[in-house]
Amino acid sequence: MAVDISVLESVDDEVVDAFAHLIPQLSRSSPPPSAQELQAMIDHDACTILIARVDGQIVGSMTLILFPIPTGLRAWIEDVVVDDAARGHGVGEKINRRAIEIAEAAGAKSVDLTSRPSREAANRLYQRMG
């Protein structure tokens, strides 16, 4: 399974539909973002949205936030989600590694994230990745 990770640079119906499919798998209490909300995220200087594709289909996403603090540049990973059907094929690891590469290239001193305890597979991945 070839996984392609890229930075989301534009919003179209495919992207909106993908988020409508993925976000409920991440959070039952948060509605999927609209096209306008996704565009606002893309346009925000601190925000980088990564998407994962397998065979051309969007199967995952994550948000990387880079922000300055008095002690240096920090990075934060949020809203990592991989489609149920694509789990177990390395998509989560590849999208996280790409985010770490982007953060390091920008000069971030660390990359942080939090994850609910109920997301057992994700937490195992994060532990394994350090």
Secondary-structure blueprint of this entry?
Layout (H helix, E strand, L loop, with lengths): L2 E5 L5 H14 L8 H9 L3 E8 L2 E13 L2 E11 L8 H16 L3 E4 L6 H10 L1
Mean pLDDT: 89
**Low-pLDDT segments, ≥5 res:** none
Strand content: 25-35%
Q: What Rg, in angstroms, do the CA atoms define? A: 14 Å
Extended strand count: 5
Q: Sheet bearing the most strands, described? A: 5 strands, mixed
Strand order of the largest sheet: 1-2-3-4-5
Number of discrete helical segments: 4
Shape: globular
- What class, by secondary structure content? alpha+beta
Distance between the termini: 24 Å
- SSE order: EHHEEEHEH
Helix content: 25-40%
Compose a concise summary of this entry:
With 130 residues, the chain is an alpha+beta fold.
Which descriptors apply to this entry?
130 residues; alpha+beta; 5 strands; 38% helix; globular
What does this structure look like?
It is built from four helices and five strands. The model has no long low-confidence stretch (mean pLDDT 89). A five-stranded mixed beta sheet has the order 1-2-3-4-5, with helices on both faces. β2 and β3 form a beta hairpin. The chain is an alpha+beta fold and 130 residues long. Helix content is 38%, strand content 32%. The longest helix is centred in the C-terminal third of the chain and has 16 residues, at 91-106.
